[in-house]
Design a protein that fits this description.
By secondary structure, this protein is an alpha+beta fold. Helices cover 36% and strands 20% of the residues. The structure holds flavin-adenine dinucleotide.
Length: 483
């Protein structure tokens, strides 16, 4: 069989997006694919190859299915039968070897050796998993409710991916802390147990940040940290005059904060399109923003303070000083007081003030520069959960001017000619004496199609671009004139 007419997939039961090559390399090692490829070109009956693929298919289908794993964990007898069947096939391959120490026979021997190791690793994983699950339950069970610690198929499957739908590994365990106080001891226990920790909110992220890449991963789902405080008037450090603020647990759904603000006649400016499902911790970790970013910035611009647990289970409290109550890059200098506490949450380890030039926190002309993970050293924000677990955050709220008009512009024809309109609209309203652009949403062609956008000009087909702008002012005539 030549390379050209080789079947693309020979490993059976593989319903995943992984190719044969990836599976062979994952289970038998990097070099095994090359060896198999060489043998394939001189394949005789193909029976040995088929049996090897069946063994790999058995391992792969179980490794990719947490429900089958649960079944085998519950039934050592069924696990033994499966492993015996795998050994039987490998023994049959062994019998077919020529044993003449030829180059071909040596390659078959190498593959058989790798396959036996893969079967042993597969079998041993069950004993390891049982033992590690017991240890995790013992350590975490002393910190949080036992039913907040989940190993079952359902929990693992629902935390394998995010909005990207990219899948690599299933998490080993999913933990749902009930309170902020549980978070530091949970982080400490998981680190001591050698597990990789991934914080997670609503799982709407588009960067794959919440996706486990390692089998021994603990996903900390923050959705139970859903305490939403009352709106308070507070004088923020280094400012004069009260400012409306709201304290949110990391797991509060973004939309709930928007609704609370709206009910008080105020605006919560962090408004990603995913607000119905995203959570506050995820918003901070991604520095999320939406339509209102044009006026009030993204999460970073609106944070008054936040709390998080560092990788060493210490507490970090960050407070913005002299908040300019507007976009952070408009302030010449953004200052943050960072206080670090021991894992007990009350013994102060140290305090520092971080100063970052406002303009360094945002790339010229961009809402946010997602490539800048360091972000001037500000902890938590835009870090995708890499430097700690955000447990709560306090945001400033804004007052919306009395009058608002939403303008919708549909663009047909050449997109290149439509795009400059975004800058033109912004420049026009930046110079307007009384009206302000409070939000500008851009829907590109794919988005317009995906949401089934209903155009106002049906005869012209589907628009290539749509802009939705909110124009606001306390002067009704100014809004009407600008719109
Ligand atoms: C339909 C759709 C529309 C979207 N629209 C927008 C938009 O308009 N603007 C925008 O900015 N984004 C948008 N997004 C992207 C996404 O919704 C945001 O990034 C959102 O902030 C993610 O929040 P989440 O709670 O779902 O986070 P998750 O997906 O759960 O996690 C995202 C990242 O944050 C980390 N993280 C989550 N919680 C914590 C925590 N408590 N502590 C530390 N790290 C944490 C995770 O580890 C991961 O790296 C959209 C996504 C979708 C699917």
């Amino acid at each position: 069989m030549t390379r050209m007419n080789a079947r693309l997939r020979e490993i059976p039961y593989n319903y995943t997006s992984f190719s044969d090559r990836e599976i062979v390399m994952r289970l038998l090692g990097e070099d095994a694919w090359g060896t198999l490829d060489e043998l394939r070109t001189e394949r005789r009956t193909g029976r040995s190859a088929r049996m090897l693929y069946e063994v790999l298919g058995d391992i792969w289908v179980v490794n990719r299915n947490p429900y089958l794993q649960d079944d085998l964990l519950d039934s050592p007898r069924r696990l033994n039968l499966l492993v015996e069947a795998m050994h039987h096939r490998l023994n049959e391959i062994e019998k077919r070897r020529t044993g003449d120490a030829s180059a071909r026979d040596t390659k078959v021997d190498e593959l058989l050796h790798a396959a036996r190791s893969a079967v042993a690793a597969f079998e041993n994983q069950y004993a390891e998993t049982r033992s590690l699950r017991r240890k995790v339950m013992r350590r975490l069970g002393a910190i949080t409710r036992r039913d907040n610690i989940q190993f079952d198929g359902m929990a693992r499957v629902s935390h394998v991916t995010d909005a990207t739908d990219w899948r690599v590994e299933y998490p080993f365990v999913v933990v749902h802390p009930d309170t902020e106080d549980e978070c530091a001891p949970i982080v400490k226990a998981l680190t001591d147990l050698g597990l990789t920790i991934i914080p997670r909110g609503g799982g709407t992220g588009y960067t794959g940040g919440a996706i486990p890449l390692d089998r021994l991963t603990a996903v900390v789902n923050t959705e139970k940290l859903d305490t939403l405080g009352a709106i308070e008037q507070r004088v923020l450090p280094g400012t004069s005059g009260p400012c409306a603020v709201i304290r949110c647990g990391a797991g509060v759904v973004t939309k709930r904060v928007m609704e609370a603000a709206e009910a008080a006649g105020l605006v919560f400016a962090v408004d990603p399109t995913s607000a119905d499902a995203s959570c506050i911790g995820g918003n901070v970790a991604m520095n999320a923003g939406g339509k209102k970013a044009v006026l009030w910035g993204t999460a970073l611009d609106n944070l008054a303070s936040w709390r998080m647990v560092g990788p060493d289970a210490s507490w970090i409290e960050v407070e913005r000083l002299e908040h300019n109550r507007s976009r952070i890059h408009d302030a010449p200098l953004a200052r943050f007081r960072i206080r670090r506490f021991e894992p007990d949450g009350s013994t102060l380890r140290g305090e520092e003030t971080l100063e970052v030039e406002g303009k360094r926190l945002r790339k010229e002309g961009l809402g946010k520069d997602v490539t800048d993970k360091f972000l001037g050293g500000v902890p938590g924000v835009q870090k995708e959960g890499c430097d700690g677990l955000i447990t709560s955050a306090t945001f400033i709220l804004h007052r919306m001017p009395k009058h608002i008009r939403t303008v919708c512009l549909e663009f047909f024809g050449d997109v290149k000619r439509a795009v400059p309109a975004i800058v033109e609209i912004k420049s026009y309203l930046d110079q307007h004496p009384k009206a302000i652009l409070a939000g500008l949403e851009h829907l590109d062609e794919r988005y317009v199609k995906a949401v089934g956008y209903a155009t106002k000009a049906k005869s012209r087909g589907r628009p290539r671009m749509v802009l939705i702008g909110d124009i606001v002012s306390d002067d009704e005539n100014a809004v009407a004139e600008a719109a």
